[in-house]
Amino acid sequence: MNNSDLAQILIRAVEEADSSDRLLDAVQELAAAGIEESVPTLIAALGYNNPGAAVAAVDGLIAIGEPAVAPLLQLIDDYNYGARAWAIRALAGIGDFRALDTLLEAAKTDFSLSVRRAAARGLGTLRWHQVPPEKLESVQTQVLEALLLISQDPEWIVRYAVVTSLETLAMPAAVNNAITSPDRALRITNQLQQMLDTDADLGVRTRVKFAQEKIQLQQHQELFAPTKKLQDTEVEELPHRGGSRR
What we know:
The chain has 246 residues and is an all-alpha fold.
């Protein structure tokens, strides 16, 4: 049985499910298959009045990745709010650059804290290698400005997500395939310190401290990596004892 045949069987099971439990099982099986052909059905499942099925569909769409992005973006404005919220979570999990505008809008303006949280996390998982080099600096600045704005979100869980994204954005190019300018790095450092000093939630402050330590460690490793590589090269070039020609 090829993937297309399997997809049709699993899709039919979703369409013919006659109870919430059977629908959940069918969507979970379809999502687990990870077949691109199943994208329209998984997207449709986001609009069912079945949170478990929606969670499974989101996981399946994230696993499928890029092929799911265009269909999600094309249909997102036609969804009822619940389905749109699940779609934003899927886009955030995929991290495709094409979803940038949708994630920015959701992170800054959506009334649901869970959607703002998902969008804030999605801004930190964007695939920077997809951004044209000439646009990289402006896009990173745009993302940073949005994260700085929503770092003042009234909900702690959204601010927590902001910290994770600031951490990712501050990482050196070798880690996230991005280029963080000294100015942006300084703004991130200052923002994290401000949150550590002033945020009312202990969980957020603890996450900030972890982010600071991780950023400092990575910067230290990057700083000393060239020296270590040079030292290793010099050692390799030394002749082995007894290895010279006689």
